[in-house]
Structures are given as C-alpha cells and as structure tokens.
Write a structure and sequence with these properties.
- The chain is globular and about 60 Å long.
- By secondary structure, the protein is mainly α.
- The protein has helices at residues 3-41, 45-48, 50-73, 75-95, 99-118, 120-127, 131-162, 167-170, 172-186, 201-225, 230-252, 266-296, 301-307, 309-330, 332-350, 359-385, 394-424, 430-457.
- Helix 12 runs parallel beside helix 15 (332-350).
- The two termini are 29 Å apart.
- It contains 18 helices and no strands.
- Helices cover 79% and strands 0% of the residues.
- The chain folds into two domains: 3-199 and 255-466, Growth Hormone, Chain: A, CATH 1.20.1250; 200-254, no CATH class.
C-alpha cells in the first residue's frame, strides 16, 4: 500500500470518528442545557425527561437493524443517510418553539444517530484488516465513543452559557455537512451482500419493537414508578417475549437479520456482556457525578464540564497513543482487566465524597482513575467484540456492540437514578442527596465488579498475544 493510500485511510478514519463524536456529544450535551430548555419551552419536571428519552428510545431501538442494513445495502450509504437524517433533525431541534416539536425532532435525531453510528466500527475493521493497524484505529474510535460524553458536558456548558440552548443543536449542522462531504470523497464504496441475503422483515420488526419497548420501559415506568410496578413488569414481559420471538425467528429463518453464529465466539459474547455492565456503571456515574458537583459543590454548567475534562484528556492519551502497543504486547483481555479494576476503584472512591467536599480532594482523583481505566478498557473491549467479525457480518457486529452500550447506558441511568432519588427522599437535603449518590456509586462499582467476573470466566486471551512485541502476529483473533 502506498503512502498516499495510507494517508487517505487515516483521513477516512478521522472523518468516521468525527461523525461518531457528533452523535456521542449529542447524548450528553443536552443534559447540561435541560434547565434552559425547561425555562424557555415550559416543560414540567416529568415531561422534560422526554427530551432525553425520545432520543434514547429511537437510538437504542434501531441500532441493531441499522448495523445489519449496512451489511446488506452498503455501510457507506447507511452512514451518509444517517448523517442526513441527523443533520435535518438537529436543525428542527434548534428551531423548535414548542415541546411537541422538540420531542418529535429528538426522536428523529435518535434514528439518524443509530443509522450513522451503527456501521462505523464495521467500516473501521474492514478498512484496517492488519491487526496492529486495527488496534490503533479502534483505539481512536474507542476514545471518541467513550470520552465524547465528558466532552459533551463541557461543550453543552460553553454553548448554553455563551449563546443559548438552541446552538447545542445548530452546531451539528455545519459539522454534519462537512463530515458527509469528506466521507463521500474519502471512504471507498462498498456494495453490501444484497437484501436477498438477509431481508428479514419479520425479524427486523420483532427486534426493533423489542428494543424500543425495552428502552422505553427502562426510561419511563421503571424510572418513575420503580421496578416492581405492575406497568413496568407488564411492559418488561412484553419486551422479553418479543425478544424471545426474535431469537426463535433468527434460529429458523433461511436468511436471518442477525445470524446467531456471531455468538459462537466466547469473546464476542463475553465482550458484549462486559459492555452492558461496565457502561451501565460509567454512564450513570457521569450523570450523577455531574449532579453532585452542581447540587452539592455548587458548580455552574461550564464549571461542571471543566470538572470532567481530565477524564477526556487521560482517556484520549491512553486510547490514541498507548492502547495499540499495550494490546499488542499484553493482549486485549490482559489490557481490559486492569482498566475495569481502576473503574471500580474510582466508583468506590466517589462514594466517599462528602457534603463539604472539594474538587481537588474528592473529585479529581476519581476523574484520573476513571480516565485511566476507560482508556485501557474500552479499546480492548471493542477489539474483542469485533474479533470474530467477518466482512459480511462486520456491520451487524458493530451494531451489536453499540446496542449493548446503549441499552447498558439506559439501564444504568434508570437504576442508579432511581436508587439515588429513593435514598434522597421526597424533600432532599444536601446530606440526603449525597447519601443517594453514594448508594448509586456503590451499585455502579458492583456492576463493574460483575463485569470483571464475566471477563475472567468468559473471555479468552488470544494465544498470539503471547508473541513478543514487534513480532507482528495478530492479537485480535477470535476464540
């Protein structure tokens, strides 16, 4: 491969990651602006949650279908179509002057985000087939995908305070258009394997409805009424029944939407389980940690974003510069485990933060541990999750790892937020609020410990990882 071709591939990687960053930022940038949106459009406290929930339901429900569509009709086409939908929806969000318009536009934005992000990892692993190059590329992607949340807090604070909340959506328009133009020029066209190889419409309807209903159940009745509520249990049972019907359909269909063979790899199955548990702990912690520094320490939106900046800087340095040599030298599994241990330690430490805490003593050390743990953990985890992906199934496997991340994040946020608010009580004081956060952080740590257990018992260390550094042998082979 010529130097010019290598340079084009690197530029294509950066373009794909720019698209992913735009999607990830949108998931958290909105949280900082919620008070301003509530004041401007007159949302009640309960209805305000739908500004976030509408996006999560569409995004989480469509990821798996979007990933498979990329395999069938072309990942590049699905990526560009998703960008178009996302940019148009962002424009509608920014121009919204009513509650109904904003919520509907957020749902459409979630659909565009799913189409865009579901195929990116599949495009990366086919674009960089050589193991070391793949590890480097996945490190860049993992940084964007995992650190974007912390960047979103900072960006949301800057835009909301400097201009107004409308610009957290308007800013997506020029970025999305530029990304689409560059992607159309730099990314090679792929034909896909054809709709006849997997146009499983009944399966698509079952899995999309199951995931949307599951995410809805998590973010609405479970979060508001508790997990033992009759409505929560009923909707959860229906979602489980739909998911079971989908599995039965895929096991018997001639051309399944999601060939169950992808789960034959212990590493693919185990990595997705680890993803659900670890993301559940971290996503909820970012949300509740932001509340702690705002409600207890008295930070404004911009200060909150700056408080989480060390996570981004450390994660970026590790993911982009050091993840590839670490994974090449020690193997993906052996790099993943210390990262999970550091994340668990950070969450336990956050559970010690007092009412009269200070940033330097009680928050900064947590940010350092979280950034270090995530920087080690997520590149290795994504490499393991994609380790058995064939060119025909890369989009599906990419959509699956994104789906487990989204469902894990929704589950973690709902569980931790519910536990925190229940412990704080109906008339919370700073002390009771802090107690609620402590409980949530301990539960998040327990989820991460469970992820460590799965990694130890299910994941396998690729034998090639034992080769000395520089031997050039693959490390991201499937078990």
């Amino acid at each position: 491969m010529t130097a010019n071709e290598q340079g084009q591939r690197r530029l294509a990687l950066y373009v794909l990651c720019a698209g992913m960053l735009m999607i990830v930022l949108d998931a958290t940038v909105t949280n900082v602006a919620l008070p301003s949106i509530q004041d401007d459009l007159g949302f009640s406290s309960s209805s305000l949650a739908w500004v976030v929930n509408a996006y999560m339901i569409a995004f989480g429900g469509l990821l798996l279908l979007a990933g498979r569509l990329g395999d069938l009709i072309s990942r590049k086409r699905v990526f560009l179509a998703g960008l178009g939908v996302f940019v148009a929806a962002s424009l509608l969000c920014g121009a919204s002057q009513s509650q109904e318009m904003l919520v509907a536009a957020r749902f459409l934005q979630g659909a565009g985000g799913a189409l865009t992000s579901a195929v990116i990892l599949g495009m990366i692993v086919t674009m960089f087939p050589e193991p070391r190059e793949m590890a480097k590329a996945i490190g860049v992607y993992a940084f964007v995908a995992s650190a974007g949340g912390a960047v979103g807090l900072l960006a949301g604070g800057v835009l909301t305070q400097a201009i107004n909340w409308h610009w957290i959506f308007f800013i997506n328009v020029p970025i999305g258009i530029a990304t689409a133009i560059l992607a159309s020029r730099l990314i090679d066209h792929d034909k896909g394997i054809g709709l006849s190889r997997g146009a499983d419409l009944p399966g698509a309807a079952l899995v999309t409805s199951a995931l949307m209903l599951a995410v809805y159940t998590i973010v609405k009745p479970a979060a508001e009424n508790g997990w033992g509520d009759a409505g929560t249990l009923s909707l959860g049972a229906i979602a489980l029944a739909l998911l079971t019907a989908f599995v039965v359909r895929e096991a018997t269909a001639a051309n399944p939407l999601m060939p169950l063979r992808v789960f034959r790899s212990r590493n693919v199955t185990g990595a997705n389980l680890v993803q659900v548990l670890s993301v559940a702990g971290m996503f909820g912690t970012f949300f509740l940690g932001a509340l702690y520094v705002q409600r207890i320490l008295g930070y404004d939106a911009l200060e909150t974003g700056l408080a989480f900046l060390p996570v981004t800087l450390i994660m970026g340095t590790l993911s982009v510069r050091y993840s590839e040599p670490l994974i090449t030298r020690f193997g993906a599994r052996n790099t993943l485990l210390p990262g999970l241990v550091l994340i668990a330690a950070a969450l336990v430490l956050f559970a010690q933060a007092p009412v009269d805490g200070s940033y330097a003593t009680h928050v900064l050390p947590v940010m350092v541990l979280l950034g270090t743990g995530a920087g080690l953990c997520f590149p290795a985890l994504m490499g393991l999750a994609m380790s058995a992906a064939t060119p025909e199934d890369a989009g599906l496997t990419s959509g699956l790892i994104n789906t487990t991340a989204q469902v894990g994040g929704a589950l973690g946020l709902a569980v931790l937020a519910t536990l925190s608010s229940s412990r704080a009580g109906s008339h919370p004081t700073p002390a009771s609020l802090t107690g609620g956060y402590h409980l949530a952080f301990y539960v998040a740590a327990a989820l991460t410990v469970a992820a460590i257990g799965v990694a130890l018992t299910v994941l396998r260390q690729p034998k090639a990882a034992e080769a000395p550094h520089g031997a050039g042998e693959p490390v991201l082979t499937h078990a």
